[in-house]
Amino acid sequence: MPDLAYQTLxxxxxxxxxxxLYWSLFHDRARGRRRCPKCWYDLRAAMTLTCPxxxxxxxxxxxxxxxxxxxxxxxxGVVLAAAGLVVPxxxxxRRGGWPSVLPxxxxxxxxxxxxxxxxxxELKGRAYEYRMDHDLTEWxxxxxxxxxxxxxxxxxxxxxxxxxxSIDERLQWLDLLAWVDAQDATIQILxxxxxxxxxxxxxxxxxCLEELxxxxxxxx
Length: 220
Prior knowledge:
Elements (H helix, E strand, L loop, with lengths): L2 H25 L43 H16 L3 H7 L7 H6 L8 H12 L12 H15 L10 H13 L3 H11 L5 H21 L1
């Protein structure tokens, strides 16, 4: 099925869910009729606040003019509308997997999960797409880049962290930080590496810091 068909189907489902939601919450208004607030029996002929059908006694006259709400159908409408929003992204999910349709913020939140490297790979893939002709600031908001830096630091910042044991894995995360210009977090991580017990990690931390200083000098 072509992408346009999924988009059309999604719009129809959303409209159907919205229509059902409106009908269940707002359609059945009293319109001046006196009705039992429990069983909705017509009380226009009754002279009291007690329903002859179910025996419910309203506390005040205003309760007899409530709009009838069908909450179960309203929930169905919400589910339908939500499903309609998902349908148009199904083709993209089939091509690139479900991470490809997740928003940047959701992927950033998933970063500290070391077993879910697809979050890192997807973020790096999106960064590469902007490598040639876009400014990376258009890809992530500044607060998102800062949040990503903090969460990567949670995953790999401590030299004794058990989250990631491979230096290659740690360097891949640092490469992602470089793409989003999270320099403060990168410097914090590398500084801690230079004080690590592991000699190889200290070496990498020192070398990467020197490279950052060299690049900063060239930029000036």
